[in-house]
Amino acid sequence: MDIEVARACVAHTAKEGGATVIDPRNGSDAEWVGLIYSVMKSIVRLVPSTGGAFDAVDSAVRDASENISVTVPTPAGPLVILSKAAVSDGVELFSTGLHECVHISQINDHGGVQSGIDYLCGELRGFREAEASGVGMWARFVVTGRMPRPEDASVLTSSLYHLSASEKSLSLGGVRSVLGTANMGIVPPFRAAVSAINWLRKHSPESILVSDFR
Amino acid sequence: MSSNETCAAEPAKTSDEIARQDTRTLFGLRTFAIGLLVVLNSAMLASGCPELPPVSNCTPFTQRCDGDRPQVCSATQRWHTVGDLTCAAVGGSCLVLDSGIAACARARSDASVSEE
Question: Could you say which residues of chain B have pLDDT below 50?
């Protein structure tokens, strides 16, 4: 998938949710990313800790800007901050971008503050990440033709989410449901998925490698 | 006096001045970070608890269809709905597959359903 097609499709889908996407490859956006991570590091510095512990956290924050994309609620609407890894190629950008677009819908449906509170609860965090992971995996399937395994969902394989075994089981159920729908040749029942596939059908039908979704 | 001359006339910043500027930047970032934490904490205290679905005594990790939407039961026996649209909105209908997974499947005609 061409990276410019992925970028335009993700931007369109995010915009429908009233969100702004920050792309680290864009010069002015990169400055914003730097500022945001500086604030994060300042927050970390407020926590009493030894120098060694801070170095570890500082390193984690630096790694985050390389590998971890996030969507955060702001008074001006959700803000998607893509990692450098997410914009490395078109498939990665499309998959990660749609994952984050599901979070945009979740923030819009539940409100920014409530979404933040909900994210502190493992059960809700696990399920909402499962929905986002499932749609991200469906997106990858659409543009590669290769159906991923539910067990490979980021919500299950990453230690980032700090989920218990039972929360991971719930997450796996959520991912299986989304991919079960995809296996039926049906677009998963998410506004972000519908918006993205409609955009692709209109502007870049050749990017859709699974005939069921053309 | 041209702008070049103005620039040339500006004395180079000493290491003390650079250090003071860095301190001011760090102070600004810390102030913003503290403000952000205060706002977030206040909002959380004002808003309350996580919005978990009600406990419904479902069997953990089973799936079902409810209102044309797939649902998954959590370990705490709450039904979590998958997606933000009904299956009809994506051209399907909710169905629990033989594998026990609830998903959106191609809608069957009433005739084929009644024959079963």
Answer: 1-9, 109-116
**Nearest one of B100, B89, B106, B86 to A176, comparing CA atoms:** B100
Does any domain span residue B4? no
Touching check for B50 and chain A: CB below 8 Å?
yes
**Nearest CA of chain A to the CA of B36: how many Å?**
9
B75 and B102 in a common domain: yes
The pLDDT of residue B2: 40
Write out the residue range of the structural domain in which residue B43 sits.
Answer: 13-49
- Beta strand B69-73 with A79-81 is unpaired
Q: Which of B26, B50, B90 is closest, CB to CB, to A124?
A: B50
Most distant CA pair in chain A, distance? 56
Question: Quick check: is B33 in a domain?
Answer: yes
Determine the Cα–Cα distance for residues B114 and B116; give it in Å rounded to an integer: 5
B24 vs A contacts (CB less than 8 Å): none
Q: How much is the pTM?
A: 0.79
Looking at the domain assignment, is residue B1 inside a domain? no
pLDDT tens figures, A162-174: 999 999 999 999 9
Please provide residue A20's backbone torsions phi and psi, each rounded to the nearest 5 degrees: -115, 140
Mean pLDDT of all residues in chain A? 88
Q: Is residue B56 in a domain?
A: no
What pLDDT does residue B8 have? 46
Q: Residue A50: what pLDDT? A: 47
Question: What domain count does chain B have?
Answer: 2
Which of B69, B76, B105 is nearest residue A186 as measured by Cβ atoms? B105
Chain B residues whose beta carbon lies within 8 Å of the beta carbon of residue A120: 50
Establish if A194 touches chain B: CB-CB under 8 angstroms: yes
Whether residue A43 and residue B78 make contact (CB cut-off 8 A), yes or no, is no
